[in-house]
Structures are given as structure tokens and as C-alpha cells.
Amino acid sequence: MTSGSEETKLPSWAEISRLSDEELRKVFERSMQFPTYSRNTVDVRRIATDVVMRVSSTLYDSEILTMGLVSQSSSIRVPAIRRVIERKPRDSPGIVMDYIPGETLGKCWARLSWWQRLRVTWTLRSYVRQLRRIQVPDTQRTSMFPGPLASEPQECAGCMFTELGAGPFASYEELTSGLCTSLTSIAASGSGPHNQYHLMILCLWS
């Protein structure tokens, strides 16, 4: 986290928004890194009082498109994207987005009262319901496919797909079939779940 004294030294985004992508990368390199809990190669640093810059080799256009779609189509509060830093031969792509002060849910959950936890749970339930109702532009719901937002099926990433990913899946039926095949493979091995991927599959289909 950025300390109070360090925060006062930071400029505002309005003061540095005219910098080139290369100049922003230099500001990023001089800034303090946030601790990360992701398995992906994500580097997040606060480059101004009101924005952070996120650099990752696994940042894809679909993620940026998804953030915009969720922001426009739901009441879910998504940090606004201020700048997209294009990929270079030796540099990973990045995005400059609003800095949201506060603690992560993982840090404050133990201190929350039962009523606060209920409110959080109810809010997350609302978010899931809204996400399920979002219509991808220029796409019929019957032709939608699982995975990243794109014009055609893409490889799926996430703990339920292992670190290697899975797919692409042309339909939700294909996704279901793939997960069922994984469950059958786990059962046939007779060894039971031995990693987070196996546990996720069992939770989904038990």
C-alpha cells in the first residue's frame, strides 16, 4: 500500500494524462508495487493519487471489452479505464484505471458482523444475476458461447480449467461435456481430487 507521505507526493491523473505511453511506463517503473494474490503475472502500481496502472502479459482485449460492457449494462461499479497501453515487442500491455481506496473483501471479512456479511452476500447475488442478464452486442442469446468476450470462441482461463486453459468451446453444451469428461477422468483414477482444479470440478458437478 502507498503510505500517507508517499501519497502526497503523487500527482493527479489530470497532471500526467498527457504523457506518452512510454513516459507512463517510466512512471510505472518508479512507483510502488501493490501486493498481488493472483496466479497470473499481474503487476499493479499506483501512479497517481486517483489511478493505478496494471501491466500483465495475460491482458487481452476481451478483458477491456468486458469491463466496458459490464459498466454500461449493469449497476456493478467497475473502475473506469483511463488509458490502454499497447503491447510492445519487449513490454507487456497495460491499462490505467481508477484507484478505488479501501480493503479487499478477503482482508476485512473476518471483522464484518453477520449483518454486514449478509449485505455483502446479497450484493454479490445481485451482481451474478445482472451478469447473467447482460446481452453481448450484435449477438443472439442462442448463439452465445462461453469464454472471453469476442467475435468467436476463445480459450478459457481460470482455476476450473487448470493453468493450461481449456477450449475454445463453441457452445455451453461443449463446455458441459468437457467438464463432465474431466469429472469422469477424476472418478476413474480412483485417487480423488488432488488439486484445486479437481475440487472445483467436483463442487460444480457433485
Low-pLDDT runs of 5+ residues are none
**Overall shape:** globular
Question: What class would the helix/strand composition place it in?
Answer: alpha+beta
What would the average pLDDT be, to the nearest integer? 81
Number of helices: 8
The largest sheet, given as strand count, sense and whether it forms a barrel, is: 4 strands, antiparallel
The percentage helix is 40-55%
Question: Would you kindly provide a brief summary of this structure?
Answer:
With 206 residues, the chain is an alpha+beta fold. The chain has helices spanning 4-9, 13-16, 21-30, 61-73, 105-108, 114-133, 172-189, 196-205; strands at residues 42-46, 51-56, 81-85, 94-98. A four-stranded antiparallel sheet has the order 1-2-4-3, with helices on one face.
Topology:
Layout: H1 4-9, H2 13-16, H3 21-30, E1 42-46, E2 51-56, H4 61-73, E3 81-85, E4 94-98, H5 105-108, H6 114-133, H7 172-189, H8 196-205
Antiparallel strand pairs: 1-2, 2-4, 3-4
Helix pairs in contact: 7-8
How would you explain this protein's 3D organization?
With 206 residues, the protein is of the alpha+beta class. It folds into three domains: 4-98, Phosphorylase Kinase, domain 1 (2-Layer Sandwich), CATH 3.30.200; 103-134, no CATH class; 142-206, no CATH class. It contains eight helices and four strands, in the order αααββαββαααα. A hairpin with an 8-residue loop joins β3 and β4. α7 packs across α8.
What are the defining features of this structure?
globular, alpha+beta, 206 residues, Phosphorylase Kinase, domain 1, 8 helices
